[in-house]
Prior knowledge:
- The protein is 39% helix and 13% strand.
- By secondary structure, the chain is α+β, with helices and mostly antiparallel strands.
- A three-stranded antiparallel beta sheet has the order 1-3-2.
- The longest helix is centred in the middle third of the chain and has 13 residues, at 30-42.
- Keywords: DNA-binding, Iron, Iron-sulfur, Metal-binding, Repressor, Transcription, Transcription regulation.
Amino acid sequence: MVSLIAIRDAVALQGIAELNQLSRQFDQPPVLMQAMLKQLETMGRIERVEADNSCLIGNCKDCPEGKKCLTEAYRIKKNISA
Length: 82
């Protein structure tokens, strides 16, 4: 089983990490990876990155017509100290 620390470290190393990418990297189901990412988000360690509205290739066979490729991506949360 993958640890929350390993996931956090992977996100830190990649800068911005997508859910499906992490799922493949750790060989875990996307649902489990999503739950672990949500836990890290709740703990204040990472933050969700808003989806980019542009599709890099223009038309994806997997996307319904008129929909852009939406992915769930996360990055390390920056601590803001005053």
